[in-house]
User: What shape does this take?
Amino acid sequence: MEPTSTPLADQSTASRPSDTHWLDRYFGVTRRGSSLRTEILAGIATFLASMYIIVVNPAILSDAGIPFSAALSATVLISFMSSLAMGLYARNPILVAPGMGMNALFTYTLVLGAGLSWEVALGCVFWSGVLFATLAVFNVRKAIIEAIPASLRYAITCGIGLFITFIGFKNAGFIVGSDATLVTLGSFEPSLITFFIGMMATAILVILRFNGALILGIALTTLLATPMGRLWGGDVVVEWSGLAAWPDFGAVMQVDIWGALKVAYLPFIFVMLFTNFFDALSCFMALSESADLKDKDGNPRNLKRSMTVDAFASMIAAPLGTSAAQTFIESGAGVAQGGRTGLVAVVIALLFLPFLFLSPLLSLVPSIATAPALVLVGLFMMAPIGKIEWSRFEQAFPAFLAIILMPLTYSITLGIAFGFLSFVMIQLCIGRVAAIKPAMWISAALSVVLLITTQ
Assistant: This one.
């Protein structure tokens, strides 16, 4: 998708005199077909679509024993520092923050499942970050990207789009669990009706090419949700819970680095490394495909710098007191808004920082208000599906597995693993061994290890 083809790109302001500002020159805003106004709106859109992590991440980590307030402060700090680095150093419009899948792995596998203390579990996070940084520095990611066939690259983008849409529907209660059918449509209660109205309103704003459509949709849905509990009963999803709270740095430097260096903990370190590395890689690939954020060779723009930022963010997350940080696919909300440069990430970072003190304000934006934006981001990311060679079954089947298994397994990593593994097995069985590059052999082998260690 070309930058000017997105329905939300602010083309009318791209050549205004104000865009000669030093920010424009540093980030190359005009050169990327954007404007300062568009970049700021894009940063706000991504922040609004992902700010739930400021509350959800501490809620999950508190199950592992980390004090909620300490985990919240750590979440804000790492999100601010790593997103700022992504903007200033890698100059990409991507949010880096504690990953929602990584915190679940940390809490429910390492601590509650295997019985590690949260301090030792943080040590495992640290060492996985060290290995990630090593891979990033030594250009391993380039060999992997070049080894991944185009069909799988497009499939990863589409699969993540379906996954993020599924998350949006789940957050809104539009899709719920069912003993009979695994998932089903939620009950038409006021909250679900409010979400549906918000989703349709946001879609119409996008179709009409309103600048800031996703932000307007989030604001409109929040306004609709405000009186819900008071007028119809049930849970009140928008309720004032205070203005300010002091930050808690009680989890800072509580990581047990040396206690995590045991042979028994190596599988945990590996699983976190694999998950974080491929989630980051797939996120960069997906965003580059959906918004044409590519270099002259067709690879994701500034990939080495971006992966380096992501790697070091994972490494320093542990000393701050939270699970590994990673790139957020919700960055697609800002890209859909027209964001194309690192200024988007800088705006996101600056929006996180006040919530060291203002975290209670997040209760004013319910999950059903950000869910419509996530659903529409999924739509935008489905664009590359037409580029997959569906008539070539040896290419189509691995791509199909990657696309469908991401939402069905609720895991980007598992979808990628099955896609890689099936591609290698098919090429091997039909006698096209030469089509399998060394990095794909390694990726397939790592996929097998991952599937074994996650069972």
In short: The chain is about 60% helix and 5% strand. The radius of gyration is 21 Å. The first helix runs from residue 22 to 27.
